[in-house]
Amino acid sequence: MYSHKARADRLRKVLELIRADACIVKSEDNRRYLTGITTRDGVVIITKAGNRYFIADAKSEEIASRQLSPQGFTVRGVNQPSEYPICINEIFQADKISTALLESNSISHEDYLWLENSLYAKILPLKTQLDKLRMTKDLEEIEYIKTAQRISEKSFEDLLRFIKPGMSEKQIQAKLVQLMLENGSDMAKFNIVCVSGENTSLVHSTATDRIVEKGDNVMLEFGAVYNGYRSNMARTFCVGKAGDEFRRAYNVVKNATIIGQKYIRKGVSGRDADSEIRRYIEENGYRNHFRHSLGHGIGIGLEEAPYLSQDSADILTTGEVVTMEPGIYLPGKFGVRIEDLLYISNLGTENLTRTTKELLEL
Q: How buried is residue 46: exposed, middle or buried, by Cβ count under 10 Å (0-12/13-18/19+)?
């Protein structure tokens, strides 16, 4: 079983390179990465010497102690947020911390300045170093993502038996949330795209009161959460028989996912992956109709590095999980999106998504 201490040890190597004595982590996702628990607030401190601290607010102190003390964390409690700097300074004084890294791209500028001005140590910005550590998933993280994906797929399968003409987009979305929770998803903020008919051309619209009619296409993008780790998938299908124009666009997107799975592998850049699929879609008559990037990493965060886009400088490597989501959007008519999860492993690229990509006509 993977130890959260190993993640802290990877962060300690960053401290050694930058010649800092400790790292302060306040953002929720990064706290989850280093501790394995989610609390409403808190601060994690990792020192170069190997000490690990968790400072919790009063409401979270007991649960943090129960779960983190056995892992080797020292848990401290504060009664109000203004006491965080006092507690951090006490730890710094005891551990002789003179230079510390503080997240600069995952917390508010206001919080950064507040801590920088309150702590008795030289504060340096921790920019993307922790993001880069999170790009490579360990086997425990991969299993959590796979489980979340199985929950998503089972929920989608169950949902297809529920959808019928006369339902609204909001009703379908609500049922999907219910099914994911029933099938084992964590209670979480779900980011769901559920649109139909002409609304599917809006790329990332939200569910409305629009009624699904026979012959409409429906686009769903969604993902469950398991032990804090996310999955994501998208499927577009028809309620009734698909028209010829929609069917043609659908087949181009489906073929793009097949090409993408073969192309996306260790050593490929995020920019080249995006370009390869974009080129295929454009060469098949849909220039300027693929209106978002190809994909991104996923884990504790719904969207995290590496990125598959024209602006990406990321090079794919072993242990990363990325979305691949080509699409075609014809304004005022329809949109098509198919999204799979790809795991870059030592043995090649594995598609974690089992749901069929064949066009479904309900």
A: buried
Q: What is the pLDDT of residue 346?
A: 87
In the structure encoding, which two tokens stand for residue 167, read together?
């339902």
103: which residues sit within 8 A by CB, 6+ positions away?
Answer: 24, 25, 26, 27, 30, 112, 125, 126, 130
Helix, strand or coil, per DSSP, at residue 319 = coil
Alpha helices in the chain (DSSP H): 4-18, 28-35, 61-68, 84-95, 109-118, 129-135, 139-160, 169-182, 244-263, 270-283
**Two tokens at 218?**
């429906």
User: Model's pTM, two decimal places?
Assistant: 0.94
Q: How far apart are CA 74 and CA 52, in angstroms?
A: 6
Phi, psi dihedral angles at 36 (to 5 degrees)? 85, 5
Tokens of 327: 């699409």
pLDDT in tens, 42-91: 999 999 999 999 999 989 999 999 999 999 999 999 999 899 999 999 99
Q: How far apart are CA 159 and CA 180, in angstroms?
A: 10
* Per-residue confidence (pLDDT) for residue 145, from 0 to 100: 98
pLDDT digits over 82-93, tens only? 999 999 999 999
Could you give the CA distance from residue 256 to residue 246 in angstroms, rounded to a whole number?
Answer: 15
